[in-house]
Amino acid sequence: PWKMEITGNVSQAQTCNSGSESSVDPYGFERHQDFEPYKEMMNEYVAVLNRRSMRWSKLLQEKPHVEKNLTVKRYVRKGVPNEHRARIWMAASGAQEQLESNPGYYKSLLAAEHDGKLEETIRIDMHRTFPDNVLFKSKSEPSLQRALYNVLLAYGHHNEAVGYCQGMNFIAGYLIIITKDEEKSFWLMDALLGRILPDYYSSAMLGLKTDQEVLGELVKAKAPAVGQLMAQYPGIWTLVVSRWFICLYIDILPIETVLRVWDCLFYEGSKVLFRVALTLIIHHQPEILRARSLPDVCECFKQITCGAFTLDCHNFMQKIFTEPGSLSLTTIDKLREKCRQRIQEEASAQP
Ligand SMILES: *[C@@H]1O[C@H](CO)[C@@H](O)[C@H](O)[C@H]1NC(C)=O
User: Fold this and answer.
1) 58 lines ligand 1 (CB under 6 A)
2) What are 269-321's pLDDT values in tens digits?
3) Are residues 238 and 270 part of one domain?
4) Are 87 and 11 in contact (CB under 8 A)?
5) pTM for the whole thing?
6) Which pairing describes strands 23-24 and 30-31: parallel, antiparallel, or unpaired?
């Protein structure tokens, strides 16, 4: 049976070592060249995790019900230990409340008659979801592929306007890895897609297109030189950041960093996605400004997501709350409205 051991020494992850050059991390991902830097980072991060873990246990002892207050917010920004992650995500996002007020709903979705086309689309993506994760291989016992399939199928029937589209498989996959529970993963999907993220996954993807433009506007204001560079290439924001937003940084940033971003995403909402993007861009301004062509820019936006800066998740998370400066929800709401209007006008102006 698989056990997530993240609070202990990371070398435990190597017990699942299958070959000399490939190792498996505590989430089941096979790691190749990047395992050494990851291990080195974890060996230092473990001290932080242990300290946070003790603080959290004390905090959660006081009250069984997790409320939202400034202390909890501060704690979330410093990272939720893995053993509390499912519980905190569930409480902070309202998913727990939904689960409790809809007993049996998830099971009933699975028991009902299914849309054959939806089933087929989901099935096609099964082997494309984390082929580098031992837990998702169809042969592994138990395979999380079954759970993944169920969660996506139930969600597709729950939210028929969205159904299924690519990107959702990765999100559901991460939720299953963390919660180890189909029903909780389903309600967390519902919180993310239905309440936290603005319309990223419907067929028109208006919310996604809007947020890409919003990021462009924020960059113009906070890193004008980069803004100018990007203005030379119309449509470039879609090319360089749509995957960042659609996959909520999965496979873009290292897994520990993604999970820390998600801690804040569930607690504070979608604003944190902009903080991450802005930090990556502002921090790497000199490199970006050296780009001389569209392919250069695209390559550079790939590079800035890798390396020590993003791997060191604890430091990175401190940076996202300082480096981009203030970022109010009012500003974002206004920009979203402005950009959404512009996109809709452009769409209707087209012949
Ligand atoms: C904030 O909420 C936590 C968890 O529910 C609780 O333990 C803590 O006492 C609360 N703090 C304040 C200042 O209310």
Assistant:
1) no
2) 999 999 999 999 999 999 999 999 999 999 999 999 999 999 999 999 999 99
3) yes
4) no
5) 0.92
6) antiparallel
Q: Where are the beta strands (DSSP E) in 222-304?
A: none
**Amino acid found at 141:** E
Q: Residue 269 C-alpha to ligand 1 middle, in angstroms?
A: 20
CATH at 17: 1.10.8.270
Domain count, the chain: 2
| Nearest in space to 311 (alpha carbons), one of 21, 31, 17 | 31
What spacing in Å lies between the alpha carbon of 186 and ligand 1's midpoint?
A: 27
Q: Which candidate, 118, 343, 350, 91, places its Cα nearest to that of 235?
A: 343
Q: DSSP string covering 73-118, please?
A: HHHHHT---HHHHHHHHHHHHTHHHHHHHSTTHHHHHHHS---HHH
Cβ 64 vs Cβ 21: under 8 Å: no
The reported pLDDT for the residue numbered 22 is 62
Tokens of 349: 């102006």
Q: Is residue 17 part of a domain?
A: yes
Which residue's entry shows tokens 């704690």? 75
